[in-house]
Amino acid sequence: MRERPILAIDGPSGAGKTTVSRRLAERASLTRLDTGAMYRACALAARRAGIPWSDGPRLGRLCPEIPLEFRREEDGELRIRIEGEDVGEAIRTPEMGMGASEVSTHPQVREAMVALQRKMGERGGVVLEGRDIGTVVFPDAEAKFFLDAHAAVRAMRRFREWGAGEKKPFEEVLREVLLRDIQDSTRDHSPLRMAEGAICIDTTTLTVDEVVEEMLRRLPESVRRGLVP
């Protein structure tokens, strides 16, 4: 029995998982773990090692050897590092996003990452966000959410986040978002889908604070009690 709950947040690219999970963790005094960043870090490590993202066997051997760590910063955020290097900015590019989607299709990679995610979150008191948290990593999470939004809105969020810096037109960003949706939802291992019992929230017209308020409002009373440190 966990003393404090696990809150699982899944959803497609651009649905608001990262921003919402950060705000929710702050409001609920929980630790936040961005599992998507782990797959992005794997893609980055593979690129640096000269391993193609399509090479499942080599990625499977590389993954457990990546000196990956999350270090808590002064703001309480767990920042991802490789060999002590803060790679938070390096992994937040469209290329690494697509790389994360590709490397995550390999069962060898997913097995290694899921094992690490379970180890980091097993004691509870954590918000985990990704694409298979409620279905695979912690199907027994005390609360499961699925965030979604219209594809055009999700693409616009991505465009505003890095579109200008990448010099890409909105139409290209939209195509990338739709391609990522297809890759994530049709992969053989741990495809993106809403977990059984998950609370679905459409973030299309909602602000971050409105989404967080809705999530807190819809939590069972037993879970809300567990949020008190």
What does the model show?
The chain is α/β, with parallel strands linked by helices and 229 residues long. Helices cover 49% and strands 16% of the residues. It has helices spanning 17-28, 35-49, 56-62, 94-103, 107-121, 133-137, 151-166, 170-186, 208-217, 221-226; strands at residues 6-10, 31-34, 68-72, 78-82, 85-86, 126-130, 143-148, 199-202. The strands form 2 sheets. A 5-stranded parallel β-sheet has the order 2-6-1-7-8, sandwiched between helices. A 3-stranded antiparallel β-sheet has the order 3-4-5, with helices on one face. Helix 1 (17-28) crosses helix 9, helix 4 runs parallel beside helix 8 (170-186) and helix 7 packs across helix 8. The longest helix is centred in the last third of the chain and has 17 residues, at 170-186. The radius of gyration is 17 Å and the shape is globular. The model has no long low-confidence stretch (mean pLDDT 91).
Helix and strand arrangement:
Elements: E1 6-10, H1 17-28, E2 31-34, H2 35-49, H3 56-62, E3 68-72, E4 78-82, E5 85-86, H4 94-103, H5 107-121, E6 126-130, H6 133-137, E7 143-148, H7 151-166, H8 170-186, E8 199-202, H9 208-217, H10 221-226
Parallel strand pairs: 1-6, 1-7, 2-6, 7-8
Antiparallel strand pairs: 3-4, 4-5
